[in-house]
Design a protein that fits this description.
single chain; 178 residues; alpha+beta; seven-stranded mixed sheet; 28% helix; globular
Length: 178
């Protein structure tokens, strides 16, 4: 499915096979935040942890990961790719479109913690085509406007989790920044 809800007919044939191997179950059961208390290793006070599970909830539970985790004032968001709610690639082979989709998902995830891009202190991008990324960098800069800008690492990889994906972005944010 595309971001507009249209069917994508040029899906890679291995996409369904990969998805079946990775996922158990279908459908989403809504947003969930899981809060737990962790014992601090060298102190008697507990550290609060809040896990964010939403959007790809079935896949997150199946694969064993959280979209985001907050511990005290730090929020870590998992790598976010251009995947629709059924875990299909959005805009296969179109890095700028995938980037826009990803930053929209990251914005939603940050908002679940009452944060925005001003709170992001670290960003890592994994791309399959560095040349395609260069053309999309002005969009990325627009996401952060005039700053503050995060630290950033970009790595070219051979392939991402679903065929057709060209970029995955993960961020870390700090709640005390304004």
């Amino acid at each position: 499915m595309s971001a507009r809800g249209e069917s994508i007919s040029n899906e890679a044939p291995n996409n369904n096979i990969a998805r079946r191997r990775l996922l158990t179950g279908a459908g989403l059961t809504g947003a969930a935040a899981v809060t737990s208390q962790l014992a601090a290793p060298e102190a008697s006070a507990a550290i609060s942890r809040t896990d964010l599970v939403y959007y790809w909830e079935t896949q997150q539970r199946s694969l064993g990961y959280s979209q985001g985790i907050r511990v005290d004032d730090t929020v870590w968001l998992s790598g976010t790719a251009a995947l629709d709610k059924d875990f299909n690639c959005v805009s296969p082979g179109d890095l700028p479109a995938q980037m826009a989709f990803i930053y929209a998902r990251i914005k939603e995830s940050l908002a679940k913690y009452a944060l925005d891009f001003r709170h992001v202190v670290r960003e890592s991008m994994y791309v399959t085509d560095m040349d395609a990324l260069v053309g999309a960098l002005p969009y990325r800069k627009g996401v952060y406007a005039d700053g503050p800008f995060p630290t950033s690492t970009t790595v070219q990889v051979n392939q991402l989790i679903v065929p057709g994906l060209m970029i995955e972005i993960e961020v870390t944010a700090c709640r005390v920044l304004t």
